[in-house]
């Protein structure tokens, strides 16, 4: 299985903000689309582009962003869905060998990233972030050198979340890896994470996003009373308040996120203020 199971047809620019050498370039590559399904891939790619450019802060950064799609056919539709994760056992012949069930987690959808990047390098050499759009109704995705997402309901939200990892180095802000009662995820090690949107430092004067925390906001803003489980309490502050909320980076305690909810914790929420600041800083140099 692999490159003999399909064909690379080439790129199409679907959002044009200017010459690629002066803009921030997103590339969406098809996986598990037969040749007669590429019309649907064009629709899917445009749907992603429209959703991204409507989401803050990309809505105000639109003049900096080009978006391309690369049409790649596969002999069969979909992605591998191993039975060991409760899947169907399907093993379609696809160009990038995408598969669910990475690390025994069904939703974790990955492919041969080196193969994806070889195609992207050839057809859009000025690219900055690459996506793989997988033609499967099963919910899944992943970050990394290539952000991957499926066609399940809400898949566009998954894609934008995964871009937070791949393009901006953001951490997951939810406090579990597979489920809220799992062992080994009670307390974070305490060492300071490198990602800009999580911290173990609860000192108001020195924590990463100290300049964005109002004097009236308590620090820590929430505290988990039971480190063996995710914190069930609702937010004690107004939506959009930046503080230190315990639980992030797959741990229940000893690590903090900037807002109670953020796209890096909940797919259906906007990026928090700290994450938006990171995104704006990176894309501002590409504005005309």
Structure description:
The protein has 288 residues and is an alpha/beta fold. It folds into two domains: 166 residues, Collagenase (Catalytic Domain), CATH 3.40.390.10; 95 residues, no CATH class. Helix content is 18%, strand content 17%. The protein contains four helices and eight strands; from the N terminus they run ββαβαβββαββα. The strands form two sheets. A six-stranded mixed sheet has the order 1-3-2-4-6-5, sandwiched between helices. It has a two-stranded antiparallel sheet with strand order 7-8. A hairpin with a 4-residue loop joins strand 5 and strand 6. The mean pLDDT is 96.
Secondary structure layout plus pairing:
Layout: E1 6-15, E2 24-31, H1 38-54, E3 65-74, H2 113-123, E4 129-134, E5 141-142, E6 147-149, H3 155-168, E7 245-248, E8 251-257, H4 273-283
Parallel strand pairs: 2-3, 2-4, 4-6
Antiparallel strand pairs: 1-3, 5-6, 7-8
Number of strands: 8
Low-confidence stretches: none
Helical region count?
4
> What best-fitting shape do the alpha-carbon axes yield?
globular
* Assembly state: single chain
Give a nutshell description of this structure.
It is built from four helices and eight strands. With 288 residues, it is of the alpha/beta class.
Quickly list its features.
288 residues; alpha/beta; Collagenase (Catalytic Domain); 2 domains; 6-stranded mixed β-sheet; two-stranded antiparallel ribbon; 17% strand
């Amino acid at each position: 299985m692999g490159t003999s199971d399909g064909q690379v047809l080439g790129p199409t620019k679907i959002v044009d903000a200017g010459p690629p050498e002066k803009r921030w370039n997103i590339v969406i590559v098809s996986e598990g689309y037969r040749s007669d399904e590429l019309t649907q891939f064009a629709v899917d790619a445009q749907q992603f582009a429209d959703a991204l450019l409507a989401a803050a802060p990309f809505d105000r950064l639109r003049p900096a962003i080009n978006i391309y799609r690369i049409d790649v056919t596969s002999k069969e539709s979909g992605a591998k869905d191993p039975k060991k994760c409760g899947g169907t056992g399907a093993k379609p012949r696809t160009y990038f060998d995408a598969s669910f069930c990475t690390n025994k987690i069904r939703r974790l959808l990955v492919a041969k990233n080196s193969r994806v990047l070889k195609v992207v390098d050839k057809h859009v050499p000025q690219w900055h972030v690459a996506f793989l759009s997988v033609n499967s109704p099963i919910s899944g995705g992943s970050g990394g050198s290539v952000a991957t997402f499926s066609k399940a309901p809400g898949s566009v939200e998954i894609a934008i979340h995964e871009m937070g990892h791949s393009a901006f180095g953001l951490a997951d802000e939810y406090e579990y890896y597979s489920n809220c009662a799992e062992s080994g995820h009670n307390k974070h090690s305490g060492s300071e994470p490198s990602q800009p949107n999580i911290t173990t430092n609860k000192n108001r004067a020195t924590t990463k996003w100290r300049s964005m925390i109002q004097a009236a906001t308590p620090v820590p803003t929430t505290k988990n009373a039971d480190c063996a489980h995710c914190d069930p309490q609702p937010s004690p502050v107004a939506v959009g308040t930046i503080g230190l909320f315990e639980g992030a980076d797959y741990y229940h305690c000893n690590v903090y996120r900037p807002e109670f909810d953020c796209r890096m914790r909940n797919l259906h929420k906007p990026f928090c203020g700290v994450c938006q600041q990171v995104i704006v800083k990176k894309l501002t140099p590409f504005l005309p």
